[in-house]
Amino acid sequence: MGSLDFFQRFLITSLFLITGCNCEEPVLAKDMKFKLHSGDLMPLVGFGTYQIRGTELIRDVLDHALAAGYRLIDTAKVYRNEEDIGKALKELLPKYNLTRQDIFITTKLSPNDQGEKAYDALQESLRKLDCGYIDLYLIHWPGAYGVNASKVNNSALRAESWKQMVKGVKDGLTRNIGVSNYLVRHLKELSANDFGIKPAVNQVEWHPRNRPSDLLEYCNQEGILLQAYSSLGGTDNNDLLKNADVDKIAKKLGKSPAQILLRWPLQQNIAIIPKARSKKHIDDNIDLNFVIPDEDMAILSGFSQNRYAWNPETVV
Length: 316
Ligand SMILES: NC(=O)c1ccc[n+]([C@@H]2O[C@H](COP(=O)([O-])OP(=O)(O)OC[C@H]3O[C@@H](n4cnc5c(N)ncnc54)[C@H](OP(=O)(O)O)[C@@H]3O)[C@@H](O)[C@H]2O)c1
Ligand SMILES: *[C@@H]1O[C@H](CO)[C@@H](O)[C@H](O)[C@H]1NC(C)=O
Ligand SMILES: *[C@@H]1O[C@H](CO)[C@@H](O)[C@H](O)[C@H]1NC(C)=O
Ligand SMILES: *[C@@H]1O[C@H](CO)[C@@H](O)[C@H](O)[C@H]1NC(C)=O
Fold this sequence. Notes:
By secondary structure, the protein is α/β, with parallel strands linked by helices. It has a single domain (3-304), classed as NADP-dependent oxidoreductase domain (TIM Barrel, Alpha-Beta Barrel), CATH 3.20.20.100. The protein has 12 helices and 10 strands. It has an 8-stranded parallel β-sheet with strand order 3-4-5-6-7-8-9-10. Strands 1-2 form a two-stranded antiparallel ribbon. A hairpin with a 5-residue loop joins strand 1 (33-35) and strand 2. Helix 4 packs across helix 5. The site of one 2-acetamido-2-deoxy-beta-D-glucopyranose has 3 residues, from helix 6.
């Protein structure tokens, strides 16, 4: 797939805001969508739920999130909140006059379930979410739990996982499949043996201190949507939120540092899934209807590199 084609799939694109097309109303961040290989529309702004656990807390944050306009929810088996998310949505969708089809649910295969177990793990996640079908199922990590990262077995196991997930698509358990924390070499390996379905998405650590351009270029070229995680630096890390350059740009544009850190990927056609507990943060993180000028985009894209999350370079 050529790159022009790829950018045309951002049906409602942030580029629209950048070019300042005066033909229509600017599109709000909450309405931006990308058309996946399957034809499904995926919101570019989603809600992350790592470390948000417990029936009441999940219900409260999802209540705020749906009210604010989020329509994509990102979870994983290892977050141990799938069941509570399923319960909360049963109560909240009617409250917001939404149906299952209005919501996009992503969950992930645990590194503990790589290989032949992947199909059962997908079924188990769907049972917990109890939402009819999953929109997007991701291999959480290229490695397998309990297998030394330097061993080639990891490669055989993730290939088997993909085979099982393709079966999951054919059986209607999930509508789309993708990967997370894959490097270019992991993606190339998969593309040589994809059992007929290409990855829709690669969810990776992406922020000014970790922005591997080779990965973005490869994903754009292959029609794989890059989805950023830890855009704000992750939990309890103020390295980016308190950064002087981020703060300066935020003050200049009259936005919060978090909004700058979230608008920066969105403006590069990278999807985002910020996590927040407070209503104020939840509201701010989807209120991204502004443009960061080129010179400030360049400052953010010039930070020295220092990743915060797990490092897939170690996985064969
Ligand atoms: N695939 C993977 O391997 C992987 C890895 C990590 C994360 N993820 C996904 O990506 C999501 C987001 O990443 P993340 O959880 O690492 O963290 P993040 O989105 O970078 O940052 C979350 C932190 O920032 C705070 N925060 C949120 N909005 C704020 C605002 N407007 N102003 C100031 N502080 C704000 C949050 O605090 P409060 O919660 O206290 O509001 C939280 O501590 C996760 O929830 C998960 O769904 C995936
Ligand atoms: C709920 O949604 C339906 C279908 O989109 C619409 O016809 C109806 O007016 C909505 N009701 C409320 C209360 O928003
Ligand atoms: C993994 O394998 C490497 C290379 O054989 C070895 O140096 C390392 O100690 C192993 N790690 C663990 C946790 O076993
Ligand atoms: C790892 O690879 C070895 C050699 O190919 C094989 O015998 C073994 O079953 C593999 N283990 C797993 C967990 O796939």
